């Protein structure tokens, strides 16, 4: 029945997954690629996508195009998330992509992004009651799940890249900078009326910054750098211990920590703050990691519509 390529222009990375759509109504993942493009870099308070970041995304899309053009009868589903959603030069960016790559980009609303996160997790993990947390480069999506169903969802406008830039968390931040960043995150969380309903519920973590924590913990436990983190669990205390370990190193030192991708060493502190704040505020008992998220939610919806 052909192929589907899902292209995801995230705030920190650009990704693509190619799925083969089978005649029996199932799908098979054929290829998955990622490039670190950091589209939200330098947006700051002006919320302008910077030329150097746009160029990185264009290069990635050219590389992806060379891959998906090899497949016959392929459909392209391209989405963009927080960086493009927030950008004041969004229209100019989308026109540039259309002119140079030839694809249309759907800019997901924050609620749409959170909903696709829920769909992706709901179809791959047996979750009854939990708070889903997807930390991206410029936003965090939160979904409250009760009795296996989404009860509330929201997207908040901060993430690993934006927090790191706003509070200068890249290298060896001062205690004052960490406090200011945490205070900023807490103030926004305090505006979410339903968040207290997640008190003492497990948290399901999505997103690259969060997967880094799983990789680091697996190495500490097993001495091996694993690749599959779907369903991996760790206690809240272990998560806080990892953050304390990260805080004990500057950027150069963090690069050497097993399990930490070198290209995340400068944004990992900003990436961890949103989840650490939740753990301490909600008395979270444990963390569950999910490899599924927005892209898996989109393929789930796509297959449902084919039926």
From TrEMBL:
Domain of life according to the entry: Bacteria
Ranges of residues in domain Ppx/GppA phosphatase N-terminal: 24-304
InterPro entries membership: ATPase_NBD, GppA/Ppx_hydrolase, Ppx_GppA_N
Recorded family membership: Belongs to the GppA/Ppx family.
Protein known as: Ppx/GppA family phosphatase
């Amino acid at each position: 029945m052909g192929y589907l390529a899902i292209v995801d222009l995230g705030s920190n990375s650009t990704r693509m997954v190619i799925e083969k759509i089978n005649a029996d109504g199932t799908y098979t993942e054929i290829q998955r690629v990622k490039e670190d493009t950091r589209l939200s870099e330098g947006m700051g308070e002006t919320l302008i996508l910077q030329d150097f970041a746009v160029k990185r995304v264009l290069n990635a899309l050219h590389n992806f195009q060379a891959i998906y053009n090899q497949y016959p009868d392929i459909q392209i589903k391209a989405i963009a998330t927080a960086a493009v959603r927030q950008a004041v030069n969004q229209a100019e960016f989308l026109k540039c992509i259309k002119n140079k790559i030839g694809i249309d980009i759907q800019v997901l609303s924050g609620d749409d992004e959170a909903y696709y996160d829920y769909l992706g997790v709901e179809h791959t993990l047996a979750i009854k009651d939990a708070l889903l947390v997807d930390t991206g480069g410029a936003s965090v999506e939160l979904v409250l799940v009760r009795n296996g169903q989404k009860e509330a969802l929201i997207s908040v406008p901060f993430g690993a890249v934006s927090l790191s830039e706003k509070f200068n968390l890249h290298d060896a931040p001062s205690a004052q900078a960490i406090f200011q960043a945490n205070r900023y995150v807490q103030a926004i969380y305090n505006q979410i009326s339903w968040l207290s309903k997640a008190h003492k519920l497990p948290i399901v973590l999505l997103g690259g910054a969060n997967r880094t924590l799983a990789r680091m913990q697996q190495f500490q436990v097993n001495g091996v750098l694993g690749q599959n983190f779907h369903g991996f669990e760790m206690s809240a205390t272990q998560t806080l211990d990892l953050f304390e370990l990260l805080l004990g190193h500057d950027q150069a030192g963090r690069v050497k920590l097993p399990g930490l991708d070198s290209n995340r060493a400068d944004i990992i502190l900003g990436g961890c703050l949103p989840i650490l704040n939740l753990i301490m505020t909600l008395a979270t008992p444990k963390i569950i990691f999910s490899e599924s998220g927005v892209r898996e939610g989109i393929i789930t919806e796509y297959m449902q519509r084919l039926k």
